[in-house]
Design goal:
This protein is of the alpha/beta class. It contains 15 helices and 23 strands. It folds into 2 domains: 5-250 and 445-478, Aldehyde Dehydrogenase, Chain A, domain 1 (3-Layer(aba) Sandwich); 254-435, Aldehyde Dehydrogenase, Chain A, domain 2 (3-Layer(aba) Sandwich). It has helices spanning 41-60, 63-79, 81-92, 96-116, 155-166, 180-193, 207-216, 229-241, 264-276, 293-309, 328-343, 376-379, 395-403, 418-427, 466-469; strands at 5-6, 8-10, 13-15, 19-25, 28-38, 123-126, 132-140, 143-147, 170-174, 200-202, 222-226, 245-249, 254-258, 286-292, 347-350, 353-354, 362-363, 366-371, 386-392, 410-414, 432-435, 455-456, 470-478. A 7-stranded mixed sheet has the order 15-18-19-14-13-20-21, with helices on both faces. The protein has a 6-stranded mixed sheet with strand order 10-9-8-11-12-22, sandwiched between helices. 54% of the residues are buried. The model has no long low-confidence stretch (mean pLDDT 96).
């Protein structure tokens, strides 16, 4: 445990808030990682006002200083990937390999947007009227509030902060209260890299205080949120009252279809990865495994063996394949869904709480057999290491079941048939479709997002990030 208090960054200064939270290791609850100050609503207002004051100079600075800053931040993150990975694994529970990989990805995101900062394109075109020119350009949307979840403590902040800064915006950043450590380290890196005062501000704390203050601040022009559906919907309603631009990334109940012609080992590998890696705590996790009847029994046998063989333990142990659930409340929710699945008629394999050498939130991977798509465990996002296996008769039924959901983030199919793959890609109702790959796991340079209850507003990541972080201006000039 560190004795020092980790502070908020407001207008270039490290500031203590009125409250403090202790960051607890979910692998070992006796391990207090550090103490982190929480901001007040008044301090959020100060941060937003600082961002407002800093906006004109940052916007006028032009693309090169922004590119240089982001390139430096990306390099520092990759240089410190082991330190960042260890913090991430300690506070969130990802295995050390996954955590270090996430840190590297964050560095890559910053480096990618360093390049995008000097590639902000516009259009020049002729008017339908003589002697008039038309230019279409992109400008910063303004002060952006960024609210991020606990399951990707550095990657998701990176893919919001980097484009916001690249396109000339200023930032008020609120990380999840459960995992402040990695976000604080990222903020230190931005500060060390020379981000101007007020351009980037860190305000840690509870969503009910800090998040609410961001959404209601008159100085904030746009809000990007990743989290639960109920919070996202409520946030959108409140942001609309202030006519703020809103981007929401929320839940998923993602299907992985396994057809009768699938390579069984490829299918099982993709499903185990998608359902149980990162302890299933990914919005893109494969929580519904939709399996053709002809391959169902063989698939189930291999899946159960592979899932139950996963080594569950301390996230910092290199032998661990699945770390703990992130918190006591999350574990409680997961275990309640195991009971619900059983009560609804599913045959449950695994899913129980595990005792380890330390006091942590460990759960065995759960497989819900004999499941139907109408069960609560097949319709509601669990956000844990739980997957339902749903048997279907043919491709048409598989596609119908896959699309029968309130969500629409990711989907996948395992098949050796070009026809099945093509038809699934064309008709899947998800924003991202995988063929013979896990539903979880995406590249940093392409758009991320879904439909219906999964996403609202413009896509994140890649060049499509410009749709949210910029405003389009059309200019007319008379040539005389």
């Amino acid at each position: 445990m560190t004795s020092d208090l980790n502070k908020n960054l407001i207008d270039g200064a490290w500031v203590t808030g009125p409250d403090v939270t202790e960051n607890i290791n979910p692998s070992d609850t006796s391990d207090v990682i550090g103490r982190y100050t929480r901001a007040s609503a008044d301090q959020v207002a100060e941060a937003a006002n600082a961002a407002r004051r800093a906006l004109p100079a940052w916007r006028a600075a032009g693309p090169q200083p922004r590119a240089d800053l982001l390139e430096k931040v990306g390099r520092l993150i990759i240089d410190r990937k082991d330190e960042l990975g260890r913090m991430l694994a300690r506070e969130e529970g990802k295995t050390i390999a996954e955590a270090t990989g996430e840190a590297v990805r964050a560095g890559q995101i910053f480096k990618f947007f360093a390049g995008e900062a000097v590639r902000i394109a516009g259009e020049a075109m002729e008017s339908v009227r003589p002697h008039i020119d038309v230019d279409v350009t992109r400008e910063p949307v303004g002060v952006v509030g960024l609210i991020t979840p606990w399951n990707f403590p550095i990657a998701i902040p990176a893919w919001k902060i980097a484009p916001a800064l690249a396109y000339g915006n200023t930032v008020v950043f609120k990380p999840a209260d459960l995992v402040p450590g990695t976000a604080h380290m990222l903020s230190v890196i931005l500060h060390e890299a020379g981000v101007p005062s007020g351009v980037f501000n860190l305000v840690m704390g509870r969503g009910s205080v800090v998040g609410d203050a961001i959404v209601h601040s008159p100085d904030v022009d746009a809000v990007s949120f990743t989290g639960s559906v109920p919070v996202g919907r409520a946030l959108a309603v409140e942001a609309a009252k202030g006519l703020k631009k809103v981007q929401l990334e929320m839940g998923g109940k993602n299907p992985m279809v396994v057809m009768e012609d699938a390579d069984l080992d490829v299918a099982v590998g993709a499903c185990v990865n998608g359902a149980y890696f990162s302890t299933g705590q990914r919005c893109t996790a494969s929580s519904r495994l939709v399996v053709h009847k002809d391959i169902h029994d063989a698939f189930v046998e291999k899946l159960v063996d592979a899932a139950q063989a996963l080594v569950v333990g301390d996230a910092l142990d290199p032998a661990t394949q699945m770390g703990p659930v992130a918190s006591q409340s999350q574990l409680k929710g997961n275990l309640s869904y195991v009971d619900i699945a059983r009560q609804d008629g599913a045959t449950v394999v695994g899913g129980e709480r595990l005792e380890d050498r330390t006091e942590g939130f460990f759960q065995r991977p759960a497989v819900f057999l004999d499941a139907t798509n109408e069960m609560r465990s097949s319709r509601e996002e669990i956000f844990g290491p739980c997957a339902s296996v749903i048997k279907v008769d043919d491709f048409d039924e598989a596609l119908a079941v896959a699309n029968d959901t309130d969500f629409g983030l990711a989907s996948g199919i395992c098949t050796t048939s070009l026809k099945y793959a093509r038809e699934f890609r064309r008709h899947s109702g998800a924003g991202m479709v995988m063929v013979n790959l896990p539903t979880a796991g995406v590249d940093y340079h392409v758009p991320f997002g879904g439909r219906r209850g999964s996403s609202y507003g413009a896509r994140e990541q890649g060049r499509y990030a410009a749709e949210f972080y910029t405003a389009v201006k059309t200019s007319y000039s008379f040539a005389g």
